[in-house]
UniProtKB/TrEMBL annotation:
Coiled coil: none annotated. It comes from Nesterenkonia flava. This is Energy-coupling factor transporter transmembrane component T. It comes from the Bacteria. The lineage of its organism: Bacteria, Bacillati, Actinomycetota, Actinomycetes, Micrococcales. Pfam families: CbiQ (PF02361).
Length: 280
C-alpha cells in the first residue's frame, strides 16, 4: 500500500488551499470507544443525553457531514426503538411498587417504566448518533488506517473497513436493480411494488456483494496484503504530541469516571430522579 499526499478529508489538495483541520483517525476511534464506554458504563441518563447533544453539534458544525443525512439515519434507526421501549416499559412496566401517572385498563404509565424506557432509548440513540457521525465523516480507508495505527490485527481492520463499504454498495446496487425492473415494465415508483421486489433483490445482492468482497480480499493477498504487520497508511495524517497523549489519557479518564460512578464517588441523577424533578 503506497502513501499518497492527499489531505485528511480524502480529496487531493489543490495548490495554495489549506487542508481542513481534522483529527487522526486513530484518535477518532479511541474517542468513539471512550464515549460508548461512558454511555453504557455510567448508570445515568445525563451521560447519553450529553453524548447525543454533542453528536448533534458535531453533525451541525462538521464540514464532512450533512446534518440532514445524519438526522435521517438517527430517526430511522432510533425512532422505532423509542416507540417500542415507550410502549413496553412505559405502559406495561412489570414492577409492583410503582408510581402511576396515568392508567387505562392494563396499560399504566409509571415513573419507573418511563425511567427505564428513557435510559434504554438514550443509550441506543447516543450509540447510533456517534456511529453515524463517524461513518458519515470517515470512509473505509480512514477507518482502516486508524485501526492499523492502533496496532489492531490486519484481519480485524480489514473486516471493519469492509463493513463500511457494504451499505453504500448494496444501496447502489439496489437502485440499479430497481431501475432495471422499471425498464422491464415494473411500476417501481409505487411503494407496494418496491416492497414486493426488495426481498428477492436484496438476497441476490447480499450474496453477490459477499462474493465480490471475498474476491477483493484474494486480490489484496496476492498483492502482498498481510505480509507486513504495520503497512504504510493510504494517506498522510498530521498529528502532534497532544493527540498521542489524548489517545492514552481518554481511556484512562473514561475508566476512572465509570469506576467513580459505580462506587458513588461521582453521584449522578438517575432517570427516576430527573422524572420526579420534572413532575415538580
Amino acid at each position: 500500500m503506497t502513501t499518497t499526499h492527499d489531505d485528511d478529508a480524502g480529496s487531493p489538495r489543490s495548490l495554495g488551499t489549506p487542508a481542513p483541520t481534522v483529527m487522526h483517525p486513530s484518535t477518532e476511534l479511541v474517542l468513539l470507544g471512550c464515549a460508548l464506554l461512558l454511555v453504557y458504563g455510567v448508570a445515568s441518563p445525563v451521560v447519553p443525553a450529553s453524548v447525543l447533544v454533542l453528536s448533534c453539534l458535531g453533525a451541525v458544525f462538521s464540514a464532512r457531514v450533512r446534518f440532514a443525512r445524519w438526522l435521517a439515519a438517527l430517526v430511522v434507526l432510533a425512532g422505532p426503538m423509542l416507540v417500542m421501549v415507550g410502549i413496553i416499559q412505559g405502559l406495561f412496566y412489570p414492577g409492583e411498587a410503582v408510581t402511576v401517572l396515568w392508567q387505562a385498563g392494563p396499560a399504566a404509565l409509571t415513573v419507573e417504566g418511563l425511567a427505564v424506557a428513557a435510559q434504554l432509548w438514550l443509550r441506543v440513540a447516543a450509540m447510533i448518533a456517534l456511529c453515524a457521525l463517524l461513518a458519515f465523516a470517515s470512509d473505509a480507508s480512514r477507518v482502516f488506517d486508524g485501526l492499523v495505527g492502533l496496532r489492531l490485527p490486519l484481519s480485524v481492520a480489514y473486516i471493519c473497513a469492509t463493513a463500511m463499504t457494504l451499505v453504500p454498495l448494496i444501496r447502489r446496487r439496489t437502485s440499479q436493480a430497481l431501475d432495471s425492473r422499471a425498464a422491464r415494465g415494473w411500476a417501481t415508483d409505487r411503494w407496494a411494488v418496491r416492497v414486493c421486489l426488495l426481498p428477492g433483490i436484496l438476497a441476490g445482492l447480499l450474496t453477490t456483494s459477499l462474493v465480490q468482497l471475498d474476491q477483493r480480499h484474494d486480490a489484496l493477498v496476492q498483492r502482498g496484503f498481510g505480509r507486513h504487520r504495520h503497512p504504510t497508511p493510504a494517506r498522510t495524517y498530521r498529528e502532534g504530541t497532544g493527540e498521542r497523549a489524548l489517545r492514552w489519557a481518554a481511556p484512562v479518564l473514561s475508566v476512572a469516571l465509570v469506576i467513580a460512578s459505580l462506587t458513588d464517588v461521582l453521584p449522578l441523577p438517575s432517570a427516576s430522579d430527573l422524572l420526579e424533578v420534572l413532575r415538580g
